[in-house]
Amino acid sequence: MRRVAVCFLSLLLIVAIAQAFRGGIQGIVTVPSGTPVDAAAVEAVHQLTGISYAMPSSSAGEFAFQNLPLGEYTVTVAQEGFAPVKISEVRVTAGSTYNLRVKLGVTTAKTVQNLR
């Protein structure tokens, strides 16, 4: 019984230490009117290593990257019909979650003319 208790406590300690060296980024994607954006492409890139994490926003416009290595990230949010948003220097620190509110702006249609 004692051996099981020691193993359990050791496992808890390992999990606690691992979480102390990780953090997260979460947020919500909306349009200027405040309406959430469903299925926006959200990408977080660790600036030092270049490792990329990607996910779509939920139907409520929410996204969450958990258990990220510490450091600075660049977060890019894109959705068809909207101008993409790029946020640099998002700092992930130990045991905390960085909160972002991202508002996508409407893009203007570009006309390509054929000069022939």
- Mean pLDDT over the residues: 85
Question: What is the N-to-C order of secondary-structure elements (H for helix, E for strand)?
Answer: HEEEEEEEEE
Oligomeric assembly: single chain
User: Strand share of the residues?
Assistant: over 45%
Count of helical stretches: 1
CATH top level is Mainly Beta
The CATH architecture designation is Sandwich
Radius of gyration: 20 Å
Strand tally is 9
Task: Characterize the structure shown.
With 116 residues, this protein is α+β, with helices and mostly antiparallel strands. The chain has one domain: Immunoglobulin-like (Sandwich), CATH 2.60.40.1120. The protein is 16% helix and 47% strand. It has one helix and nine strands. It has one helix at residues 2-20; strands spanning 22-30, 41-46, 52-56, 62-69, 71-78, 82-83, 85-92, 97-103, 105-106. The strands form three sheets. It has a four-stranded antiparallel beta sheet, with no helix packed on it. A hairpin with a 5-residue loop joins strand 2 (41-46) and strand 3. It is elongated and about 65 Å long. The N and C termini lie far apart (86 Å). Mean pLDDT is 85; it is low at 15-19 and 111-116.
Please specify the SSE layout and strand pairing.
Blueprint: H1 2-20, E1 22-30, E2 41-46, E3 52-56, E4 62-69, E5 71-78, E6 82-83, E7 85-92, E8 97-103, E9 105-106
Parallel strand pairs: 1-8
Antiparallel strand pairs: 1-4, 2-3, 2-5, 5-7, 6-9
